[in-house]
């Protein structure tokens, strides 16, 4: 039996990881530390029996120290972060506070208990980061490898780059046993509907415009969140302390292709599911019209990176990682999850 502290475990990726870990490691105790901001939702993990939710801030150094010490935590999996690029443009301060100062607070607490107090307990601090720290690629550039220079272009990615460097420094300076994974665009269940896929799905159901930045041809690598969880599990088990691993989905697609597939899946759902038109009468598909008529082009986002792509060779070779989900089936399953879990996202809309 092991004790894990999962920061941000009531959020999208963290919440999925909690579900995944509890299913795969039923004897482990999972303590979730989450301050339940707009993107943190207690309902996401409410049905996981072996989870203890502690509502608190990762910047509360004494709280984190006490949790690691008193719960005999051997592994910290650090998801907690402000992560929406648009919000970082309008209000970068929260990203500095949470992503940089919060990560430093966690590292200090881990160092104090695991190293300074001399417990000798084997430990691991695993840090979740993003491919956005690497900047933007031209169409013919090679995909991001772990040795690609950091060139963050938004306040969000700059704050994550800084936290990556802090994690690395605590390993090289103090000997803290750390690993980092840089992931591509995640999608799947429990994602807060400000990100592209859930936003466009719910907009389509309610007959709202689908706002497309610029020409819609910005390219991202799409990673199903359960594949991401598998990659993290592999890194915790086989990753070398001090090393970084890129986790991708192997699905490099322009945004327009993703949006077109969303429209197709929504239209298909209305054709196949009895009663859907009655539930969502404002959807074009409820009235025999194509969802694509909701597509609307808007001014491009400031500093919008053109292309991300992940080279996951290192994770494949050293961790045995490979994605199991393809985007077509993964997107269809995601749509049906939102249709089957209306209470979950309705509650978020009421609270917004």
Outline the fold blueprint.
Elements (H helix, E strand, L loop, with lengths): L2 E5 L4 H13 L4 E6 L16 E5 L5 H10 L4 E4 L6 H6 L2 H24 L7 E7 L24 H20 L3 E6 L1 E3 L8 H10 L4 E4 L5 E6 H14 L5 E4 L4 E3 H18 L3 H4 L15 E4 L14 H7 L7 H14 L1 H10 L1
Parallel strand pairs: 1-2, 1-4, 2-3, 4-5, 5-6, 6-10, 7-9, 8-12
Antiparallel strand pairs: 9-11
Helix pairs in contact: 1-7, 2-4, 4-5, 6-8, 8-11
CATH class of the domain at 3-184 and 225-249 and 308-324: Alpha Beta
Overall pLDDT level: 96
The number of helices is 12
Query: Taking strands numbered 1, 2, ... along the chain, how are they ordered across the largest sheet?
Result: 3-2-1-4-5-6-10
Query: Which CATH architecture of the domain at 3-184 and 225-249 and 308-324 would you pick?
Result: 3-Layer(aba) Sandwich
Gap between N and C termini = 39 Å
Number of beta-strand segments: 12
Instruction: Please provide the ordered H/E string of secondary-structure elements.
Output: EHEEHEHHEHEEHEEHEEHHEHHH
pLDDT < 50 stretches: none
Main β sheet profile: 7 strands, parallel
Taken as a percent bin, the fraction of beta residues is: 15-25%
CA-based shape: globular
Proportion of residues in helical segments: 40-55%
Cofactor: NAD(+)
Catalytic activity: dTDP-alpha-D-glucose = dTDP-4-dehydro-6-deoxy-alpha-D-glucose + H2O
Keywords: Lyase, NAD
GO molecular function, one term: dTDP-glucose 4,6-dehydratase activity
């Amino acid at each position: 039996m092991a004790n894990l502290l999962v920061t941000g475990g009531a959020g999208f990726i963290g919440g999925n990881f909690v579900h995944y870990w509890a299913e795969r490691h039923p004897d482990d105790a999972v303590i979730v530390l989450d301050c339940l901001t707009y993107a943190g939702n207690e309902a996401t993990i409410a049905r996981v029996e072996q989870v203890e939710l502690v509502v608190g801030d990762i910047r509360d150094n004494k709280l984190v120290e006490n949790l690691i010490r008193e719960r005999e935590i051997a592994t910290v999996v650090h998801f907690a972060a402000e992560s929406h690029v648009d919000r970082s443009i309008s209000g970068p301060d929260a990203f500095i506070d949470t992503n940089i100062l919060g990560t430093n607070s966690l590292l200090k607490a881990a160092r104090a208990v695991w190293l300074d107090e001399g417990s000798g307990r084997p430990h691991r601090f695993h840090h979740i980061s993003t491919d956005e720290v690497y900047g933007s690629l031209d169409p013919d550039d090679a995909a991001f490898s772990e040795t690609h220079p950091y060139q963050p272009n938004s306040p969000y990615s700059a704050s994550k780059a800084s936290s990556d460097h802090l994690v690395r420094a605590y390993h090289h300076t103090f000997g803290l046993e750390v690993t980092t994974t840089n992931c591509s665009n995640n999608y799947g269940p429990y994602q807060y509907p400000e990100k592209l896929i859930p936003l466009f799905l719910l907009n389509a159901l309610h007959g709202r415009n689908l706002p497309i930045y610029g020409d819609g041809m910005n390219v991202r690598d799409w990673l199903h969140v359960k594949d991401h969880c598998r990659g993290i599990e592999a890194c915790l088990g086989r990753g070398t302390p001090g090393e970084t691993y890129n986790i991708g989905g192997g699905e490099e697609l322009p945004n327009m292709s993703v949006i077109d597939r969303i429209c197709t899946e929504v239209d298909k759902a209305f054709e196949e599911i009895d009663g859907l038109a009655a539930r969502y009468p404002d959807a074009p598909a409820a009235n025999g019209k194509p969802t694509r008529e909701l597509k609307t082009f808007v001014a491009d986002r400031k500093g919008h990176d053109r292309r991300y792509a992940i080279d996951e060779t290192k994770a494949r070779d050293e961790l045995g990682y490979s994605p199991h989900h393809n985007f077509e089936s993964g997107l269809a399953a995601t749509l049906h999850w939102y249709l089957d879990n209306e209470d979950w996202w309705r509650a978020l809309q009421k609270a917004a």
